[in-house]
Structure formats: structure tokens, C-alpha cells
Specification:
Elements (H helix, E strand, L loop, with lengths): L2 H8 L1 H29 L5 H42 L7 H28 L1 H7 L8 H24 L3 H20 L5
Helix pairs in contact: 1-2, 1-4, 2-3, 2-4, 2-6, 2-7, 3-4, 3-5, 6-7
Length: 190
């Protein structure tokens, strides 16, 4: 059975979709906060940015995979036991039973890798700068622009999912990023 069918059978497709969006936001805003904080602290260098954001990406990924797996496994086991009690039989060897065992891992991987991937995408310009491809004077603006574009993209995805005005959702997502960046910029005042 493929991944999509497995997730749909257990209803975990909706959970995975929500985790992807929520945790991508976390990865984007965490990266943005770290990057602006580094600049505000006067420590800006491609290496410092790469190390700090990769550290956050690793922590977010490990946290997301482990917490996602543990919580989803408990929820799916509980659901499976309720179904078995209602049916008065063991369903562990059925498609539903097999899907119920696989879904937590799939959802956990989405939960963990979405913020980590977002972090890595955002700091790609820092790699380019460290390799001598992108001038350092463009580094901050390029990472902030990528962060904002990713937020806009998530807003569009949410707008389409809600069957609402995608521009409204894109602007909401962008405003969240601008607010986070502005608040983080206040660190420079200390």
C-alpha cells in the first residue's frame, strides 16, 4: 500500500498536511529569528549563520520526529483499540491495522523534516556566500527574502486548501514573518 493510501485510510493525511504547514512555519520563523538575532548581535558571518541555523534545524527535526511519532503512535493505538472493541475482533492484520502501524512514522517524518528542510532552504545563500558565489552584502536580504517567499507560499497553500482568497492568506503569512522579524530586530536595542 502506498504512503498516500496509508495516510488516507487512517485519516492521518489531514494531520500530516497540518504538521507540514505548522512546522514549516516554525522552521521559517526560527531561522528568521536566529539570522536577525545574529545580525543584531554583530556576529554575522556565513559560518555562524550556517552553524546556528543548522543546529536549530537538527533540534527541530529530532524534536518533531520523536514527539510526532510518540504522540501519533499513542493516538493511532487508541483508535485501533476502539475499533477492535466495537468490532469484537483483532484487526492488526487488516489493511487498517497495517496502516495504523505505519501512519505514525510517516506523520512523524513530515512533522520533523518540514521545519528542518525550511531552515536549510533559508540558509542556502549562506552556503553560496561561504563558497564565494554570493557577495556577503546580499546575504541578509536574500535569506529574509527566501523566508518571506516561503511564508507567502504557505499562505497560498492554506488559501487554496480553505478555498478562500489565496492573496488574503499569503498576506497573513507574510505579516506573521514581518512581525517576527520586527520583534527580533528589537534585540539590537539591548
Amino acid at each position: 500500500m502506498n504512503i498516500i493510501k496509508t495516510l488516507k485510510l487512517t485519516g492521518a493525511d489531514k494531520i500530516a498536511r497540518r504538521y507540514f504547514v505548522v512546522n514549516s512555519f516554525d522552521g521559517i520563523l526560527t531561522s528568521l529569528g536566529i539570522i536577525i538575532g545574529i545580525y543584531a548581535g554583530g556576529l554575522a558571518s556565513p559560518k555562524v549563520i550556517i552553524v546556528a541555523v543548522l543546529g536549530a534545524a537538527i533540534a527541530l527535526t529530532v524534536s518533531g520526529v520523536s514527539s510526532g511519532y510518540i504522540s501519533e503512535e499513542a493516538e493511532h493505538k487508541s483508535s485501533m483499540k476502539q475499533i477492535e472493541r466495537a468490532m469484537l475482533k483483532d484487526i492488526s492484520k487488516t489493511k487498517m491495522g497495517k496502516s495504523t502501524r505505519k501512519s505514525p512514522l510517516i506523520v512523524a517524518l513530515v512533522n520533523g523534516f518540514s521545519p528542518g528542510l525550511a531552515c536549510i532552504i533559508i540558509i542556502f545563500p549562506a552556503f553560496l556566500t561561504s563558497w564565494g558565489i554570493l557577495p556577503e552584502s546580499y546575504l541578509l536580504n536574500s535569506m529574509v527574502a527566501i523566508s518571506f517567499l516561503m511564508l507567502i507560499t504557505l499562505g497560498i497553500i492554506l488559501g487554496k486548501r480553505a478555498k478562500e482568497n489565496v492573496l488574503k492568506y499569503a498576506i497573513k503569512a507574510l505579516l506573521i514573518g514581518i512581525i517576527a522579524a520586527a520583534l527580533t530586530s528589537l534585540i539590537a536595542l539591548f
